[in-house]
């Protein structure tokens, strides 16, 4: 997917009004990883709200903090990470302050996660029908027969071929793509209000990836679920995300409605990510920063300044504002790129 190739015709219309109360409100989330002598701040005050039914793409390079954010939203940062600040307000309650039994009730019922490597998620000793049904029995409190009926229905929804037969299959009898569909079925069977998809299709071949992504987007819309869709591939988010947040070094660098992000990207880091997927040598030359061009940036300035091709002295000295460039379009930059 290249920036040059993306036009508004490629993008489905917006489905979500942003004026209602958010379903999920992440406020100033801070996560540290303790080290031998000091700790490293991996999330540096991330704030992001998700409207009911909205699909938000979260993109960034490896190490940006995407998985740490996904897991911290659920109150379980990857060990030994610790949440040291902020709130995650979901349906009016701060998830991070809930007692563990309450949290467990929410996870799987109102909040669901789809992760890559589905085989690791599935129990190898249980048929997939029983595994999916178990989710409904635990979280919806339905009996075994009704749970199996729901499981068969959701297997049909995720387009597993011959679902009646697959109900009795074990995980090792499924292809990687089919196993991922089963994990999606488990995530959706309780009609969650919010789904986190963390790089869910990485490791699958490209054709299967695109089928599963379109399925995930369509099912989230059918179920009215909001979704945080995490990926390293910014191009994917053009197809079905309503808004896109760009994460770098544990901070949101740019947040925008999809059209704005692809047609009028403002942060040099976003331009670098788009250039990496572009076929335009001019775009790549202007915005790509080779690995050897990376420099450490002083903590008091912009964290991207050391890699930024348009950085000025002020960028290393002063924190940039998270400025609203146009309605709903924000960039953490002293010199956001103008497309006038
Ligand atoms: N177990 C750990 N111990 C110490 N630091 C960690 C640990 N796990 C992650 N980190 C730090 O947190 C940062 C963010 O990691 P995270 O896995 O959230 O990034 P990511 O954007 O999801 O990357 P990827 O796309 O590769 O999954 C890393 O750069 C790393 O420095």
From TrEMBL:
Any one Gene Ontology MF annotation carried by this entry is:
ATP binding
Q: Please give the Pfam families that the UniProt record associates with this protein.
A: ABC_tran (PF00005), oligo_HPY (PF08352)
The topology of this chain with respect to the membrane is: Peripheral membrane protein
What keywords are annotated for this sequence in UniProt?
A: ATP-binding, Cell membrane, Membrane, Nucleotide-binding, Transport
Record flagged with keyword Repeat: no
Task: Read off the SUPFAM superfamilies from this record.
Answer: P-loop containing nucleoside triphosphate hydrolases
Q: Specify the ABC transporter domain's residue ranges.
A: 26-274
Q: What top-level branch of life does the organism fall under?
A: Bacteria
Chief location: membrane
- Per its UniProt record, what CDD domains does this chain match? ABC_NikE_OppD_transporters
Q: Where in the cell is it found?
A: Cell inner membrane
Q: Which PANTHER family match?
A: DIPEPTIDE TRANSPORT ATP-BINDING PROTEIN DPPD (PTHR43297:SF2), OLIGOPEPTIDE TRANSPORT ATP-BINDING PROTEIN APPD (PTHR43297)
Concerning its family, UniProt says: Belongs to the ABC transporter superfamily.
- Name the record gives this protein: Oligopeptide/dipeptide ABC transporter ATP-binding protein
User: Native species of this protein?
Assistant: Labrys monachus
Read off the lineage from the record: Bacteria, Pseudomonadati, Pseudomonadota, Alphaproteobacteria, Hyphomicrobiales
């Amino acid at each position: 997917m290249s920036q040059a190739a993306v036009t508004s015709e490629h993008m489905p219309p917006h489905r979500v009004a942003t004026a209602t109360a958010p379903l999920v409100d992440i406020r100033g989330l801070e996560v540290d990883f303790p080290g031998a002598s000091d700790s490293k701040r991996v999330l540096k005050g991330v704030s992001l709200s998700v409207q009911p039914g909205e699909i938000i793409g979260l993109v960034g390079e490896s190490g940006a903090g995407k998985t740490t954010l996904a897991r911290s939203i659920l109150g379980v940062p990857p060990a030994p990470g610790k949440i040291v600040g902020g709130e995650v307000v979901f349906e009016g309650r701060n998830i991070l302050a809930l007692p563990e039994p309450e949290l467990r009730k929410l996870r799987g019922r109102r909040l669901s996660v789809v992760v890559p490597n589905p085989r690791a998620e599935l129990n190898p000793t249980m048929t997939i029908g029983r595994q999916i049904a178990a989710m409904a029995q635990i979280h919806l409190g339905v009996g075994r027969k009704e749970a199996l009926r729901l499981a068969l229905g959701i297997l049909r929804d995720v387009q597993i071929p011959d679902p009646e037969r697959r109900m009795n299959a074990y995980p090792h009898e499924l292809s990687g793509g089919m196993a991922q569909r089963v994990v999606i079925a488990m995530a959706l069977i309780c009609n969650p209000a919010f789904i986190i998809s963390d790089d869910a299709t990485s490791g699958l071949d490209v054709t299967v990836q695109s089928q599963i992504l379109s399925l995930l987007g369509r099912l989230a819309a059918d179920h009215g679920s909001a979704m945080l869709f995490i990926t390293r591939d910014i191009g994917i988010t053009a197809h079905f995300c309503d808004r896109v947040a760009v994460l770098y070094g544990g901070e949101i660098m740019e947040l925008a409605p999809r059209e704005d992000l692809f047609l009028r990207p403002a942060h040099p880091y976003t331009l670098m990510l788009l250039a990496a997927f572009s076929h335009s040598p001019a775009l790549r030359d202007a915005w790509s920063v080779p690995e050897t061009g990376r420099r450490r940036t002083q903590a008091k300035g912009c964290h991207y300044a050391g890699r930024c091709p348009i950085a000025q002295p002020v960028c290393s000295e002063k924190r940039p504002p998270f400025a609203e460039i146009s309605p709903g379009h924000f960039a953490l930059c002293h010199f956001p790129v103008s497309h006038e």
